[in-house]
Amino acid sequence: MTCPADLLDLDDQLSDAELRVRDEVRGLVDQLRPSIPEWYEKAYFPTEIIPELARLGLLGMVYDGYGCPGRSAVEYGLAAVELEAGDSGLRTFVSVQGSLAMSAIHTHGSEEQKRQYLPGMAAGTIIGCFGLTEPNAGSDPAGMTTFARRDGDDWVINGAKRWIGLASIAHLAIIWAQTEDGVRGFIVPTDAPGFTATPITPKLSLRASIQCDLELADVRVPAAARLPGAAGLRGPFACLNDARYGIAWGVLGAARDSYLSALRYSRERLQFGRPIASFQLTQEKLARMAIGLTQGQLLALRLGRLKEAGRLEPQQISLGKLANTRTAIEIAREARTVLGGNGVAAEHSPLRHANNLESVRTYEGTDEIHTLVLGRHLTGIAAFR
């Protein structure tokens, strides 16, 4: 019988290595699953799982050398699906650490910076965060006001950042700042005088995850802290595209878990003397969820193969992030309706997934921004300003 979460037998399109990675991460998440509702309720991110994430090679997964795992783009995508099937907070940790902080150093850092930081980050002993968004500069990062000025051989950074994942547990922050020569990136130790990370609470979404406000007050770093390969906004945008790629896969985990929860419940829940799975309206909901999930799987796999071939374009990443996140939210919300009133209980995952996905659809580019990226590609006209 065809798997209800793989109607087109897409497993047949995966290699043994890809299936092995997926199954290993799925096994870990299955072990964590009983604790996830409590983590969400208590707004707790389980730092104790970081060594296991590192052991499975999930930190900086696609990068080569410097202790990094060097796995494929599809393997990373499959891992993101399994993590987010548990909770978006799990996938977000891996994304911030690997696709943002480690990506910045691996792509734009000096040889000395790579050797100094990447092995520890891949091992999970050094945690990083990525400071781009500001209180008044989210979708328009060119409007950032954080500024780094030269002072002898040092740089002195002043400014504020907001919604910065992992910042309160991080050892280093990748800080993007305006300079006299345009936007530049800096590796800033989080214990530097003048650096303050304050967790944002309370939250209605991504509760089992850490997001912070940052204040940088005369934070002094040496010249060697600047990322030499990053000039202008192309630097952070390259990292954001890596993260967006992972999101296009990861949200399907939340969608799949929501759909399977609804499917199981519909078979067990009796109304009018019959399981609700026997009613046409319920079957229509389940069929609609299965179609959306399957379309998302096909899109993600195509993006992965393009990325492995070195042919993935920014507008294609925007397509994947926008379409799959929208689909995942619709599935999670529809799944909650199948569960009826019981769907608001913490023992059931769809509403938690739906709440989390509201954050995921906003970070790394809102629906509106990705729509305009596609619009620019289709028309040749930029409508951002």
From TrEMBL:
It comes from the Bacteria. Pfam families: Acyl-CoA_dh_1, Acyl-CoA_dh_M, Acyl-CoA_dh_N. Pathway: Amino-acid metabolism; tryptophan metabolism; Amino-acid metabolism; lysine degradation. Residues 16-124 form the Acyl-CoA dehydrogenase/oxidase N-terminal domain. Keywords: FAD, Flavoprotein, Oxidoreductase, Transit peptide. Its EC number is 1.3.8.6. One of its GO terms (biological process) is fatty acid beta-oxidation using acyl-CoA dehydrogenase. Its cofactor is FAD. PROSITE patterns: ACYL_COA_DH_1. GO terms for molecular function: fatty-acyl-CoA binding; flavin adenine dinucleotide binding; glutaryl-CoA dehydrogenase activity. The keyword Transit peptide applies. Residues 237-378 form the Acyl-CoA dehydrogenase/oxidase C-terminal domain. It catalyses: glutaryl-CoA + oxidized [electron-transfer flavoprotein] + 2 H(+) = (2E)-butenoyl-CoA + reduced [electron-transfer flavoprotein] + CO2. It is an enzyme of class 1 (oxidoreductase). Residues 129-219 form the Acyl-CoA oxidase/dehydrogenase middle domain. Belongs to the acyl-CoA dehydrogenase family. This is glutaryl-CoA dehydrogenase (ETF). It comes from Jiangella alkaliphila.
